[in-house]
Specification:
3% strand, 4 helices, two-stranded parallel sheet, single chain, mainly alpha
């Protein structure tokens, strides 16, 4: 069995963290999924004429933030990890990668919730007319 101190403190000085690579890949996949989701929702709503300008602006801003945080995660991984060194599970940059992933998930959730409520509001407004 591996001692817990060996998991937290690697025996070598220079290494790269596998968790950071996983979080970066998840961030890239979330950014791609966000782009596809927003494009599909916006195209469907614009086709049905149920999208207000405010909803479109919010969708674009949240998609932009998700893409920017995905790019920041990639740049952070490139600058902080040297894959030529031996691999380890986590390092001090793992917390930063988790924070970036949390921001991406939050932006994605906010955009989808706002886009869903814009549809409900306009559907109710159309029914009243």
């Amino acid at each position: 069995m591996i001692p817990i101190t060996l998991l937290l403190e690697p025996p070598i000085e220079y290494y790269w963290a596998l968790a950071n690579l996983i979080f970066t890949i998840l961030g890239i996949l979330l950014a791609i999924a966000m782009i596809i989701t927003v494009i599909i929702i916006v195209v469907i709503k614009l086709y049905k004429k149920r999208m207000s300008a405010g909803g479109l602006i919010i969708a674009i801003i949240s998609t932009f933030i998700t893409i920017i945080t995905g790019i920041v995660g990639i740049v952070l991984f490139i600058f902080t990890e040297d894959i030529r060194n031996p691999m380890f599970w986590v390092d001090i940059w793992t917390i930063v990668h988790l924070f970036i992933l949390f921001v991406q998930i939050t932006c994605m959730a906010v955009a989808i919730v706002i886009l869903a409520t814009v549809k409900k509001r306009t559907a109710v407004g159309d029914a009243e007319l």
